Amino acid sequence: MTAITHVYNYTVRCPHYKDNEQTASWLNHIEINQSCEIALNRMTKWHEQAGNKSFEMNKFVVRKADNEDAYFSMQSDRLKNDGHALVTFKILLDNCCEDASAELIMQHLIEDYQHRIAKLG
Fold first, then answer.
1. Are 29 and 11 in contact (CB under 8 A)?
2. Which of the ends of the chain has fewer CB neighbours closer than 10 A, N or C?
């Protein structure tokens, strides 16, 4: 069994405010970190209280939480040189952004993630 060598955690927060200099958009509120602690927390939540399957996209199963307007997904990928990447996604939505669609956001995040892991090989 190979260890996880790369961790990516994406969080998108639909902004609850409007900045006078920028249009309120989820594109301005994408956070990416590589914390194993966050990944483990999300894996636990995925198994204990993941909600219901909302949709699938590019082999990612996306679930909507039961108790909040949030979507979760995760996946692992085998990398060259016997490495593995673990990626988690959390999308927090509200009604402030006209362009806030879980499907559109996931498409954007998956493309970013695939671009990042392509650089590793």
1. no
2. N
**Pair 90, 72: CB distance under 8 Å:** yes
* DSSP label at residue 59: T
Give kind and range of the element (H or E) at residue 73: strand 70-79
Domain carrying residue 20: 6-120
Strands 6-13 and 83-92, how do they pair? parallel
In a domain, 43, yes or no: yes
- What's the pLDDT tens digit per position in 49-74? 778 999 999 999 999 988 888 899 99
Q: Is 10 helix (H, G, I), strand (E, B) or coil?
A: strand
Instruction: Identify whether the C-beta of residue 72 lies closer than 8 Å to the C-beta of residue 65.
Output: yes
